[in-house]
Amino acid sequence: SDLPSPFAYLLTIHLKEGRNLVIRDRCGTSDPYVKFKLNGKTLYKSKVVYKNLNPVWDETVVLPVQTLDQKLWIKVYDRDLTSSDFMGSAFVALAELELNRTTEQVLKLEDPNSLEDDMGVIVLNLRIAAGLLLSCLILLNERCERWACFTLGHLAVSFKCTISLPLFIASKPSLNLGHVCVFTRSTRLSDLLRKNQLWNGLVTITLLEGKNIPGGNWAEIFILLKLGDQRYRSKTLCKSANPQWREQFDFHYFSDRKDMLDIEVWRKDNKKHEELLGTCQVDITALPMKQTNCLELPLEKHPGSLLMLVAVAPCTGVSISDLCVCPLGDPSERQQISQRYCLRNSFRDIKDVGFLQVKVLKAVDLLAADFAGKSDPFCVLELGNDSLQTHTVYKNLNPEWNKVFTFPIKDIHDVLEVTVFDEDGDKPPDFLGKVAIPLLSIRNGKQSCYTLKNKDLERASKGVIYLELDVLFNPIKASIRTFKPREKRFTEDNRKFSKKILSRNVDRVKKITMAIWNTIQFLRSCFLWESTVKSMIAFVVFVVTVWSVELYMVPLALLVLFAYNFSLVTTGKVNSTQDAQASKIAELMGLDEDEDDDDKESEKKGLIDRIHMVQEIIIAVQTILEETASFGERIKNTFNWTVPFLSVLACLVLVAATVILYFIPLRYIVLIWGINKFTKKLRNPYAIDNNELLDFLSRVPSDVQ
């Protein structure tokens, strides 16, 4: 009792499972996770178990506790991408626990604001232990290795830490330790934070087909694939008991997590009701590395099976470090990385397109998100599905992170998104600002200041962020990747109806329609001889063109159009036109915020729920309009040299097409094309079909982008 004991007890929690939890998702399930709180502070958050009302967590955590005159709160939430829905809570009075004895607790979940009587139960084991004085000091030596110095009475022990402190304490029950003091750097970026972010492998799933899927003949079928927190949803196929997907998905692989690949087969009827048809699992750790495995997986407790290819490959190039040890700062390492992406290695490891290094230096004049006029900012960097984050700088509007992040580049047309958030305890973080930087626009080694924008990148937010970026890539690998399908994004929330987006898409389609209509009217006026001079010129051009044109002249004419637009770009005429279009789009996007507030208020009143079927039809129309407008704008922007890399690539393809059409008869070209199409399935039964032209256009930004 005489000892200074800010943490006199150790509380061991073994979270086992949940039973009969409440439904929070529209599909009739929930994605539950658990938070443990003391004195209003979240001490631990469990993993998320997706689509399960009887989740099994089997997680253990050891927490230091100051006194026993407090309550341990257990709160259950349903995970959504934008927010979390409350699923009930329970508490345990620590004073009622016996010292040094493990007791099982079956806690009934309750919510005074809910009308549900039975919200399920949470099962866990609790153990409270008290002991002698222990002081732990974690230091960082010059080589960034961790050392621990323990003082137990008059005995001092020092050794290198290779395990985390809770694991060390749990493995030494004979020490009966109580007093724990951990000293870290003020930045709070621990090795654990880095380790939890850095993946060291890539799991590639090729979903081929289903066989004898129950109920597939009268409902639409889709697949959900989950590996840890990563989720993909396949495309929804028409009614068939043997659906063919032919889709590819890439997961990050963490060798120390031992996660199972969960596969769920779902069906959706005409009323949009979703029902789980069957599940299966794949143990990724049991598969050999650097080898494609063909698996036919039977559905558990249901007839039918899934055929897929699974490949596990090591992944390099992902790192988080301090400024003093950045990879490209070392001349020898920079030369080694440059050699990896030189032209000589263009056909080696074709998926490894390039290397990106991002120095996140600091931010200035951020938005104050806390009541005290401060913020707790941290940065999240996203490149495609890859995501890394900085540590949190507490109570600061001018944070300095000074960290270096590296990413492997899989598509040179990806956009790096850097988002600044305010950490808000156990609540979702508050958005402070965002920037989006296309990889092809990066100037190597130049420190740049970027103005933060709002979530939709429509208007400027408060504050700026300082970044220094370097990108190294192989142009041949990047060109080949351009004509292949883009990487699918992880599952996101369903799109919602927005009046301003619908209005913008209608205006974009109207522009394209008017351009086509004006062309038709011009041809019609030539036929009707409304202007004698114009009609005479058009007639002469028509006769000369039909009489002398050859097939190879078609791509040649497109090359002339590229050259003409390039001359406009050099004189600045195209840029001024595009700026005018951008300003007009900004006006469409910047509708009164009161309109958005009205939409949100309508959603709160349940209007969207009452017209759910109508809303889905409107969303489908909104999506079709957007795709139609984007397609036309991307064709225009290809010729306008909006992205010079893509325009140069298109010119090279047109030059090759011109030469081929000039020297090789058309019948031979069509014959080679047909033989390739007919024999593709025979040569590679698991090939994924794609349209190279559409894949190319998907890399060209639309006017809104």
Automatic annotation (TrEMBL):
Segments traversing the membrane: 537-564, 645-673
GO biological process, one term: regulation of neurotransmitter secretion
Keywords from the named record: Calcium, Developmental protein, Membrane, Metal-binding, Repeat, Transmembrane, Transmembrane helix
SMART domains: C2
GO cellular component terms, A-Z: synaptic vesicle membrane
Main location: membrane
Source organism superkingdom: Eukaryota
Domain C2: 1-107, 184-297, 331-452
Keyword Repeat among record annotations: yes
Membrane-topology annotation of the record: Multi-pass membrane protein
MF GO annotations: calcium ion binding
First and last residue of the signal peptide: none
Any one Pfam family match given in the protein's UniProt record, by short name: PRT_C
Job description of the protein: Might play a role in the development of cardiac outflow tract.
Membership in a protein family: Belongs to the MCTP family.
Name the record gives this protein: Multiple C2 and transmembrane domain-containing protein 2
Provenance organism: Dryobates pubescens (Downy woodpecker)
